[in-house]
Amino acid sequence: MAGAAASRERWIDVAKGVSILLVVLHHAVVKNLPMEAPEALAGVVGGWDVVTTALKPVRMPLFFVLSGFVASRAVHRPWVQVRRRALTPYYTYVVWLLLLGAFFSVERLLPMNRTQDLGELGTDLVWASTGTWFLYALAVYFLLARLLSALPATWVLSGAVTLSVVSSELGIQEWNRFSVLFHFTYFALGALAPQVVRRVAERAPVPLPVLAAAYVGFTVLLWQLDLPTGVYLLLASGLGVPLGVRSAVVLARTTRPAQVLAWIGRRTLPVYVMHTAVLATLLHLPPVLDLESGSVLRGVLHPVVVTAIAVLVPLGAHAVLLRLGATWLFALPQRRPHPRPAPATRSGQASRRSTEACASTSEGPYQVSIRPSTSSLGERSASGPSSAVNS
C-alpha cells in the first residue's frame, strides 16, 4: 500500500514538473526567441510557435486539473480547516504582483502584461491580468469549489463549461483575465470529480502513442474549423489532458527522469513567479546562443537552453531565500502557538505530563505539535511554497 501511494504521488509531481516546464518553454518561445532571432530564422520561430500553440490545450488545463485533484478532499472540509489553504495563494499573488510590478516598471523590454499605474493595480487585485494570474485563480477556484461542493458535480461542471465557452465572446482572449474565467472548468473537474482523473491515471484504454497521434490529428482538424478560442481549447483538452496524465504516469515509471521532474514538480511556485524576471534579464545580457549567424540548430536549441536557465535560476534563488528566512515570499506567515504554562508542582511530574498531553493532542487525523522541533519547522518551510501553488 505504501508503494502504491508513493507511485501515485510521483506521477502527480511528475505531471506538475512537466506542466511548469511547458509554461516556461512557452514564454521562452513567444517572448525571447522572436526578439533575438534574425529574419533568416523566421521559419524556426514559426515552427516553435506551432509547437507551443499545439501544447496550449495541455499546458494550463493539466496544471489546474492536478491542482483541483490535490485539493479534492480539502474542498469538502469545514471552512475553519481550509481557510489558510484559500488565503495562501492569494497572499502569494499579492506579494509577487507588487514585486514583479516594481521590476517590470523598470524593465520595459520583455513583452508583458504590465501593471501601469495604481488604478490597474487595484483592478489586478480584484481580477488578475498579469503573469501571476495562476495564483489568483487558485485562490478563487478553491473558494468557488468549496462553496459549490454540496451541489452535484455535473451541475457545477456544466456551469463551468458554459463560463469557459462564454469567455471567448468577451473580446479578452489576449489577456490573462480570459484565462482566469476559462480554466475553472479544469480545477472543478479535479476537485469535484477526482474519480475521473484517477480513472484516467490508472487505466490505459489506448496505448500512449495512439493517444498522442489522435491528439495531433484532432487539433489539426480543429484548427481547420476556425472555432472560438474557448470552444477549441475545451474540445482539444478533452484529449490533451488525458495525454498529459498518461504521459506523466509513463514517465513516473522511469528512474532518473522521474526523479528530476518530480523534484521540479514539488517546487513549481518559485519557478512560476520568478522565471519571467529571468527571461527579461537575459535580454539585457550577452546572448545565450548567438543567433545572428542564422544557424538553424542554434535557433532550435535556443528556447530549450533559455528554459533551462529560467528554471534553474529561480530554483537556486528559492533555496537561498529559504536559507535566509524569507519564507514569507512563498507562503502565508504562520503564527506559532504559545504553550500554556503548566502549574508548578513539587516533583515536576505533573508539569511534564501536561506538556506531553498538549504535544500529543490531535484534531481528527491532524497532529498538533505545541513545540515543534527545528527539523519539523524546516520541513514545513520547505514544503509550504510548493503546496501554495499546487494545492
TrEMBL record:
Residues 337-391 are annotated as: Disordered. Residues 346-391 have a biased composition (Polar residues). Pfam families: Acyl_transf_3. GO terms for molecular function: O-acetyltransferase activity. GO terms for biological process: enterobacterial common antigen biosynthetic process. It is found in: Cell membrane. It is a multi-pass membrane protein. InterPro entries: Acyl_transf_3_dom. One of its GO terms (cellular component) is plasma membrane. Keywords: Cell membrane, Membrane, Transmembrane, Transmembrane helix. The keyword Cytoplasm does not apply. Residues 10-313 form the Acyltransferase domain. The chain crosses the membrane at residues 87-106, 126-144, 151-172, 178-197, 204-225, 231-252, 264-285, 305-331. The keyword Cell membrane applies. Belongs to the acyltransferase 3 family. This is Inner membrane protein YcfT. It comes from Nocardioides dokdonensis FR1436.
